[in-house]
Amino acid sequence: MSTKSTTLEQFYYDNKIVRNFSIATIVWGVVGMLVGVIIATQLFAPAANLTQYGTFGRLRPLHTNAVIFAFVGNAIFAGVYYSLQRLLKARMFSDFLSNFHFWGWQLIIVAAAITLPLGITTSHEYAELEWPIDIAITLVWVAFGINMFGTIFKRRERHLYVAIWFYIATFITVAVLHLTNSMQLPISLFKSYYVYAGVQDALIQWWYGHNAVAFFLTTPFLGMMYYFLPKMANRPVYSYRLSILHFWALIFIYIWAGPHHLLYSSLPDWAQSLGVVFSIMLIAPSWGGMINGLLTLRGAWDQVRENTLLKFMVVGITSYGMATFEGPMLSLKNINAIAHFTDWIVAHVHVGALGWNGFLTFAMLYWLVPRIFQTNLYSEKLVKTHFWIGTIGIAFYAIPMYISGFTQGMMWKQFTAEGTLQYGNFLDTTLQLLPMHMMRALGGTLYLTGAILMAFNLFKTMAQGTLLANEKAEAAPLAIIEEKHESDGHWHRWIEKRPIQLLVASLVMILVGSLVELVPTFMVKSNVPTIESVKPYSSLELEGRDIYIREGCVSCHSQLVRPFRSETERYGEFSKSGEFVYDHPFLWGSKRTGPDLHREGGKYPDSWHYHHMREPSSMSPGSIMPNYAWLLEQTLNTSQTQDKLAAMKKLGVPYSTDEIANAVKDLNTQAKAIQANLAAEKIKVSQDKEIIALIAYLQRLGTDISKK
After folding, report:
1. Which residues are in coiled coils (predicted)?
2. Which of 201, 363, 453, 456 gets the highest tally of CB atoms within 10 A of its CB?
């Protein structure tokens, strides 16, 4: 007994930081899901677009950021801070860094909640926040990394458990993704342009976008699965060897798969093919993780019948398996040709988000909160109710979206016996899908209701318990463990006890695919052939483009005509990579709620665009697009026009010194011409209104090359 007392060290786990992140997860989860229900409603009830700050285009990025970075992000940190301390038998390295991380992350979320509805956005999907917020994200992420590695270095447990491998890979990969994708040239505090353009910008964005799903929505949750599932089931992980294969194969293969978001685009064929090949390969490690999770419950399925938390875990892991089977399937070109730009992708994403991320988060919170508050759950019945409402909500969400996606994809491609498009008017498909969108909103409402029940249940649980802020623990110091430890006997044991080597190996794994795909696209000119007739945007068109970005039009409209007969018949000549060389950022989009706009220029008179923005249904009866009447009233801000052209010149856009100096003058000249066109059709509008700039941009789209 005396020997034990001399070899064991006493310390305290920090549960306060876990409590803080758990509460933030609950609150932001309800907020993010509520915004999701609102935008789902807007897609069949345009009247729900209240004010210019509450339109679908401005709220959609708010929803994605709130769910991904506020709800899921805080859940990750709650799970990591709880499990890391116990796996390493050490308190977090720095209470200050823990609190800096927590409050810094919440301030970033608040900044996003303010700036995105104001239209302050870069337009890059899942990376819409402007450059000052990106810098704040970097600082907070570095603080998280220092805190994590500081804890690892002072650990009392020699072996680094599999969950920690996933945490380390998450940290380094997200850092690389964020820094690379956030390369912007600031114009002002709230405006910047990406240094990349066109095809290269698209490749960087979807290298980031796909791997944000991989290394923010997947790898940390796999780490949490490997910790919390065995705890909940009181069973060891099914196969440690499988976890080794799962980890290394997943982080190596995942990073290559981003180009499958850009099939049939202007991206070079070799990059598209690489994306397809590695996407198909990705199913093996993904299902390795799913199988390892489900087989951990082998011999414990009787518990699943009674334990609702295990039900959440089983549905969550199964959803992960479904989503990671469907992802490779959607990367097959013949399937992608039908599915891309449709609601099929929306269904696919939400099976993963609602099932995998949502249900694992719910299970973790239900398991964790009572323990740190030293009490039982307030109501087991509410947990069961939440499970069934949430599961039904997922079904009501996903199934209608699958039907909607299949319907869209097939209607867009349908031809008559005479060889003409059967549904030539894009609105024909839009109106056909409205019942499915209503059901989707119902499913989202059910899922939100479950989250609200959870919030009530957990807050009542907290109220009836007492937070164990500093949880007492004891363990032998690492030096004694090292002395007593025998030879490892397996090559992987060498890296499992060396965090820096594990970090470096993870970095090498993710850099191989990244460099192979990105470097040739930037260094080999033939990958993005130029077109002599493609000229930079005029100063008025550039301002109009920025309004288009501000209003979130890219959320509903693509600017990429794919080389299909159905698309060239509907929109015009397919898009060429050389047409986008001056596009900072690219605006190809990922969803067609409305028609593609890349060949919009000259298709309609200026008056059509004026009336369409004022009242969409006046030009397109049955349209679900909100009106943008404020564009007719708001004065175009030209105070930064010269700075914008000067910034573009720094990025390689060939503006002359005179064009920059005369930017506002040239802008007014072009604006007067559009004003005159409108006046000829008895539309009175001042030349300095934002609608004029937007019309100029729309009329420019696709006019640099000859059309069929």
Report:
1. none
2. 363
Peptide bond into 186 cis (omega under 30): no
pLDDT the model gives residue 301: 86
Beta strands in 437-503 (DSSP E): 470-475
Q: Return the structure tokens found at 286.
A: 């993904």
- On the 0-12 / 13-18 / 19+ scale of CB atoms within 10 A, 497 is middle
**pLDDT in the model for residue 532:** 87
- Contact assessment for residue 585 and residue 123, using Cβ atoms and an 8 Å cutoff: yes
Q: What is the 3-state secondary structure (H, E, C) of 586-646?
A: CCCCCECCCCCCCCCCCCCCHHHHHHHHHCHHHHCCCCCCCCCCHHHHCECCCCCHHHHHH
Q: How far apart are CA 490 and CA 494, in angstroms?
A: 7
Q: Residue 9 and residue 657: Cα distance in Å, rounded?
A: 70
Residues of the chain with confidence (pLDDT) below 50: 1-5, 486, 707-708
What single letter denotes the amino acid at residue 597? L
Which of 405, 390, 265 has its CA nearest to residue 346?
405
Instruction: Compute the distance between CA of residue 168 and CA of residue 165 in angstroms, rounded to an integer.
Output: 5
What pLDDT is attached to residue 493?
Answer: 72
What is the spatial distance between Cα 687 and Cα 708, in angstroms, rounded to a whole number? 32
Inter-residue contact 144 to 186 (CB < 8 Å): no
Name the residue among 221, 277, 229, 218 with its Cα closest to residue 251.
218
| Look-up of token digits 């875990």 | 313
Q: Tell me the H-state helices in 89-130.
A: 95-115
What does pLDDT average to over the chain? 94
Q: What sign for the dihedral angle of Cα 158, 372, 138, 178?
A: positive
Beta bridge partners of 185: 193
Which amino acid appears at position 221 of this protein? F
One-letter identity of residue 600: E
Interatomic CA distance for residues 240 and 255, integer angstroms: 23
Helical packing angle, 131-153 and 95-115, nearest 10° = 160
3-state secondary structure string across 495-513: HHCCHHHHHHHHHHHHHHH
Provide the terminal-to-terminal Cα distance of the chain, rounded to the nearest Å: 89
CB-based contacts of 508, cutoff 8 Å, min separation 6:
none
DSSP 8-class letter at 538: P
Strand, helix or coil for residue 671: helix
pLDDT per residue as tens digits for the range 548-577:
999 999 999 999 999 999 999 999 999 999
Cα 549 from Cα 244, distance rounded (Å): 44
Beta partners for 191?
A: 188
pTM of the predicted protein model: 0.95
- Are β-strands 470-475 and 9-14 bridged in parallel, bridged antiparallel, or unpaired? antiparallel
Where does 182-319 show beta strands of DSSP type E?
184-188, 191-194
Question: What count of Cα atoms within 13 Å lies in the side-chain half-sphere of residue 377?
Answer: 22
Structure tokens at 484: 């007593």
The distance of Cα 333 from the centroid of its chain, to the nearest Å, equals 23
CA angle 13, 15, 16 (to 5 degrees): 130
CA–CA dist 616, 627 (Å, integer): 6
Amino acid letter, residue 334 = N
DSSP code per residue over 545-576: HHHHHHTTGGGT------S-HHHHHHT-SPP-
- The confidence score (pLDDT) of residue 484 equals 55
Residues 6+ apart with CB under 8 A from 459: 26
Q: Give the HSE-up count for residue 465: Cα atoms under 13 Å, Cβ half-sphere.
A: 21
Q: How far is CA 300 from CA 163, 344, 356, 442, in A?
A: 21, 35, 21, 34
